[in-house]
Amino acid sequence: xxxxxxxxxxxxxxxxxxxxxxxxxxxxxxxxxxxxxxxxxxxxxxxxxxxxxxxxxxxxxxxxxxxxxxxxxxxxxxxxxxxxxxxxxxxxxxxxxxxxxxxxxxxxxxxxxxxxxxxxxxxxxxxxxxxxxxxxxxxxxxxxxxxxxx
Length: 150
Hints:
Helices cover 38% and strands 19% of the residues. With 150 residues, it is of the alpha/beta class. The chain has a single domain (32-149), classed as Rossmann fold, CATH 3.40.50. It has a 7-stranded mixed β-sheet, sandwiched between helices. Strand 3 (34-38), helix 1 (42-54) and strand 4 form a beta-alpha-beta unit. Helix 2 (65-75) packs parallel to helix 3. The longest helix has 13 residues, at 42-54. It is globular. Residues 1-26 have low confidence and may be disordered.
């Protein structure tokens, strides 16, 4: 069953939510890995969501950069998949903010249709973990997700 958040969509069943009492809270090693997907293209979002959920990942979805930052704060994802060009706040600004505000850096994969090497260099300077050009094979993204989350 999907639950909706005001700022963005969260996909999780009640059984996957951590219980309130501290003795039953799952450790980071045993809980499902949490992936925040920040992209404004509904087709890309849906195909990535389906692929990663089928592998057991818990997916949180934001449709713009501001929603992405809000969900990153609220859900503490293990990995962020971030589109570079989005409304309200670009992927670069989201990445920069994530790197400035988080005590423990989150892994970030940036996906983009931009072919310029200047953008890739800037993303790397900001600390992106992987940079994938659109269109991409889903296997390429899955390999990157699995590598970064092991």
